[in-house]
Write a structure and sequence with these properties.
Bound molecules: uridine-5'-diphosphate-4-deoxy-4-fluoro-alpha-D-galactose
Distance between the termini: 43 Å
Helix content: 25-40%
Oligomer: single chain
Radius of gyration: 19 Å
Strand order of the largest sheet: 3-2-1-4-5-7-12
Order of helices and strands: EHEEHEHHEEHEEHEEEHEEHEEHH
Structural class: alpha/beta
Length: 325
């Protein structure tokens, strides 16, 4: 099978590329290197530098592939509220360009990187795929819209897709084959790591009065290598069953911000300099995934997502990159 990984030089994309290569898939990466990094490219995967808004280059890259994994997107929640135009253009138009290039080249299988942000602030903490969608930021809205576009392209253009709703993506390749740290990270664990290595003097825990076990927010942290394996299984599923699906990817277990910090201190033996602060607007108290559908349909199960492994693999990379300063 030959697969085009759009956004394959990014954080999740590079882990997906590694996983596909390990199964003997022929991989071609398409990435504009805006957040993706050449250091994340694998020698045995072809690389085409290009943007999803550049239709001729995209169409060329699509030639001769059997399937597409699409992870190229803008993903900063706060930024999406200030620059919806940028998110509309890159996430919505960009994905439509990818789909149209697929139609033109008769490519039938599409694996899409969606997000738990499509659920917004749900009235429950444990979410399956039937939980109503009500995104509260433009980023989540852009992904929800794309899911809808996908079901129309399935009906009208016979493109079969699996949309994977990631919960909180964390961790790094345990073998150290992905070497690029995310630039300007916005998420909890990279911020914890940057605090350990004094890139930031101090971090803030956003809210300590939530109705959770210790008052801090609870999230479902899923190791990026577990996310990666789902992409391979999704492609296999599409080839075999030729049916579209939308699937949650999480562990079903929640960890609080405080637990993440405490466990980081335990695993690394380093102090995290933090203070308790106000709630961040738009943060639900707790979010956890029911991923039974991914388990039943794909045979997917997280195996890398223990808290210890998540922190250990992240620390390993940060130690190598920042520990030398
Ligand atoms: N947090 C802090 N301090 C920080 C950063 C984060 O306390 O400096 C807290 C947040 O308040 C939240 C938790 O850590 O309770 C996790 O925050 P992240 O920003 O890492 O992740 P979110 O749960 O807000 O969102 C993430 C992705 C979204 C995705 C969503 C899906 O950033 O893109 O998961 O659940 F949509």
């Amino acid at each position: 099978m030959r697969v085009l990984v759009v956004g394959g030089a990014g954080y999740i994309g590079s882990h997906v590329v590694k996983e596909l290569l390990s199964h003997g898939v022929e991989v071609r990466v398409y990435d504009n290197l805006s957040t993706g990094q050449t250091i994340n490219l694998f020698e045995n995967a072809e690389f085409i530098e290009g943007d999803i808004l550049d239709i001729p280059t995209l169409e060329k890259a699509m030639q001769g592939v059997d399937g597409v994994v699409h992870l190229a997107a803008k993903k900063a929640v706060g930024e999406s509220m200030m620059h919806p135009d940028m998110y509309a253009l890159n996430n919505l138009n960009g994905t439509v360009n990818v789909l149209n290039a697929m139609v033109k080249n008769n490519v039938k299988y599409f694996v899409f990187s969606s997000t738990a942000a499509v659920y917004g602030m749900p009235d429950r903490s444990i979410l399956d795929e039937t939980t109503p969608l009500d995104p509260i930021n433009f980023y989540g809205f852009s992904k929800k819209m794309i899911e809808e576009v996908l079901s129309w392209y399935d009906r009208l253009k016979d493109i079969k897709f699996v949309a994977l709703r990631y919960f909180n993506a964390v961790g790094y390749d345990a073998e150290g084959d992905v070497k690029g740290m995310e630039k300007n990270p916005q998420n909890l664990l990279p911020i914890v790591m940057e605090t350990i290595f004094s890139v930031r003097p101090q971090m803030t825990v956003f809210g300590s009065d939530y109705p959770t076990k210790d008052g801090t927010c609870v999230r479902d942290y899923i190791h990026v290598s577990d996310l990666a394996s789902a992409h391979y299984l999704a492609l296999e599923y599409l080839k075999k069953e030729n049916q579209s699906q939308i699937l949650n990817l999480g562990t079903g277990t929640g960890h609080s911000v405080k637990e993440m910090i405490d466990e980081t201190e335990r695993v690394t033996g380093k102090k995290v300099n933090y203070k308790m602060g106000d709630r961040r607007p738009g943060d639900p108290a707790a979010l956890m995934a029911v991923s039974l559908k991914a388990n039943e349909l794909l045979g997917w199960k997280p195996v890398h997502s223990s808290l210890e492994n998540i922190i250990q693999t992240t620390y390993q990379l940060y130690q190598k990159e920042l520990g030398k300063n």
